Amino acid sequence: MTGRLTVIDCDPGTDDALALWLALGSPELDVRLVTVAGGNVGLELTLANARAVVGLAGLPVPVVGGADRPLLGRYVSETRVHAANGIGGITLPEGPPAAPGVASDAIRDLLRRAGPGEATLIGLGPATNLALVFATEPALADRVREIILMTGAWGEGNITPGAEFNAASDPEALAMLLAAGLPVSLVTLDLTAQAFVTPERLAALRARGEGRCLGAACDILAAVPTSRRFGFAGFPLHDPCAVALAVRPELLAVREVAARVECGEGPGRGRTHLDRWDRWDRWDRWGAPANVRLAETLDADGFFALLGERLAALP
């Protein structure tokens, strides 16, 4: 089986680490490039973490650093969840050196060599690197099969009352991608809340085997604090859900909706407005045609079975 050409853009990040291992362990994807932005922690750490995750998997996938800040506004980290080093305080062996260059240039170069509709781009952090690709060379849009973003929410946020962390980190970049006519799919907080890590699910993952990637993944999960939003019963596992949409799309139910993101200053900055019920047609004189595929529900048991299977297949 030949996997489809894939780029993972990330900001590891505890959940990014598991998402990377899920992607690298899935034959449905041919991961050719991992690009990195500052996000959950600063770029120096996210780049080191991505290198370590790829290195632990033992695969020769180039890792390239990119944006260390948003297009506008200020950079804010999230160490309360991800710890000071970004991966729950867990120490991984240092990975191979970063590949030379800049993330957006590396993605453009790969897309230029791809065929029409060949590439899948999976964005797990702020959308800065991906936005820079298409802002500077919009003709590359025809090489894209799908862009899957873990971002946004139709309900409440997780970094502010209204905004999800990735969307709030660079709303202008996200707005650029939403306006570019690209085939975008969104995996939001409302979906990832269904991928809920409990002590029982973590124990089931540990029982899958003794590989180094599986063990590191379980150690990282064990270090993530339980969520106050969910009564401290566990926590959502965000980024692997975006990879699951690419690998096993039947696990997620999707529909086409219209999406916008707030880019102004104030408490609404970064909030995503997702029209799931065609309400903008009644109130917006310009109309609001569907511009994204929105993942709404997840087969959680199937998702954790997939995660365990693929992590156990890695070294």
Commentary on this structure:
The protein is α/β, with parallel strands linked by helices and about 325 residues long. It has a single domain (about 5-315), classed as Ribonucleoside hydrolase-like (Inosine-uridine Nucleoside N-ribohydrolase, Chain A, Alpha-Beta Complex), CATH 3.90.245.10. The protein has helices at about 15-25, 45-55, 80, 105-110, 130-135, 165-170, 170-180, 190, 200-205, 210-225, 240-245, 280-285, 300-315; strands at about 5-10, 30-35, 65, 120-125, 145-150, 185, 195, 235, 250-260, 270-275, 290-300. The strands form two sheets. It has a nine-stranded mixed β-sheet, with helices on both faces. A two-stranded antiparallel ribbon has the order 7-8. Strand 2, helix 2 and strand 3 (about 65) form a beta-alpha-beta unit. Helix 1 packs across helix 13 (about 300-315), helix 4 (about 105-110) crosses helix 5 (about 130-135) and helix 5 packs across helix 7 (about 170-180).
Number of strands: 11
Low-confidence stretches: none
* Text of the CATH class: Alpha Beta
From the spread of the alpha carbons, the general shape counts as globular
- Assembly category: single chain
Mean pLDDT: 95
SS class: alpha/beta
Distance between the termini: 20 Å
The side-by-side strand order for the widest beta sheet comes to 3-2-1-4-5-6-11-9-10
Assigned CATH superfamily: Ribonucleoside hydrolase-like
Task: Kindly report the CATH topology.
Answer: Inosine-uridine Nucleoside N-ribohydrolase, Chain A
Number of helices: 13
Strand content: 15-25%
